[in-house]
Amino acid sequence: MHGSGSFSVSVNNTKLVDFVQKDREIFLTPKELGGLQIMIEDLELPQSEMAIAEVLISDIAKLTLWAPLTLIEVKDEMELTVSAYDSNMNEFD
Fold first, then answer.
1. 17 in Cβ contact with 2 (< 8 Å)
2. How far apart are CA 13 and CA 76, in angstroms?
């Protein structure tokens, strides 16, 4: 935000992710599990601080289902909520 719009992106471990920088967006594709640092630097504002994000790429450790009712009749339908948790028990809906 409030940058020049010209920035570079780097990661500390290219074995964990593939990344593509397109305009002002960064797309990451995980390849392996592990901790990752993403560094973003504004190329036209030398006084600006480098932004660093810490990311954990992990398998899903736990899934929970929530239903508004406890029983579902045969051949009936119901909306469910599925929540996925990583190994640190952070929730991802």
1. no
2. 48
pLDDT digits (tens, 9 = 90+) for 6-23: 888 899 999 999 988 887
**pLDDT tens digit string along 26-64?**
888 889 989 999 998 888 887 888 889 988 888 888 888
If residue 65 lies in a helix (H) or strand (E), which one and from where to where? strand 62-66
Residues linked to residue 65 through DSSP beta bridges, in sequence order? 82
Output b/e per residue, 46-70; b: 16+ Cβ within 10 A.
Answer: eeeeeeeeeeebeeeeeeeeeeeee
Can you tell me which residue has the tokens 């991802």? 92
